[in-house]
Amino acid sequence: MTSIPDKVVQMIRKEQVLIVGTANKSICNVSPRTSFHIEQDGSIYWLELFRHKTLRNLQKNSWCTIAVFDKKKLSGYQLKGKAKLVLDKKLKKEMKIKITDRLTRLHRQRILQQTKNKRPNIIKFDTKLVFSLNPNEITDSPLMVDANDESLVAEDMQW
User: Fold this and answer.
1) Which end of the chain is more exposed for a tag (fewer CB within 10 A), N or C?
2) Which of 147, 137, 125, 140 is nearest to 80 (CA)?
3) What is the DSSP string of 138-157?
4) Cα–Cα distance between 24 and 62 in angstroms, integer?
5) ∠ CA 116-120-123 to the nearest 5 degrees?
6) Would the pTM of this model clear 0.70, i.e. be above it?
């Protein structure tokens, strides 16, 4: 696994919102996430509060995209990778604590109300590619590629 460039991690932490894009065979879906945690290895974990389109799409197609942007600077990044439901109970509990501990009290209360005290799912995202969303940069060339991932075949990487 390749770690996410520091400037991307800094923007994610500053902006506090991820836009997650998924797709099934015929239609795409995007939705915001505000309850997440970034590990040192570049994995991003988020609370999957809804059991709707994103979760169903990920069960059929593990590839997804995360976008983060700074609207004042008109800059941002797009991370492409694979996401999966965390099934390990110990890891799930650890990530839930890490994610909820960094939330503000008000945000945490809203999250708990939304889940109605049910245990939310945790999704793990492993970054495979990072692209700039800056208007003045060439966006066809990734800033980062996970060279260890055999699924990133050159013919599939035509954007």
Assistant:
1) C
2) 125
3) --SS-SEE-TT-TT--GGG-
4) 10
5) 160
6) yes
- Number of Cβ within 10 Å of residue 141's Cβ equals 10
Query: Residue-wise over 108-122: b if at least 16 C-beta within 10 A, else e?
Result: eeebeeeeeeeebbb
Dmax of the chain from CA atoms? 47
33 in Cβ contact with 39 (< 8 Å): no
Residue range 1-28, pLDDT digits in tens: 457 899 999 999 999 999 999 998 888 9
* Torsion angle defined by CA atoms of residues 69, 73, 74 and 77, in that order, rounded to the nearest 10 degrees: -40
Contact of 14 with 70, CB cutoff 8 Å: yes
Tokens 């991690």 sit on residue: 9
pLDDT in tens, 61-106: 999 999 999 999 989 999 999 999 999 999 999 998 898 887 776 6
Query: Tokens at residue 151, please?
Result: 């699924």
| Tokens 């970034």 found at | 38
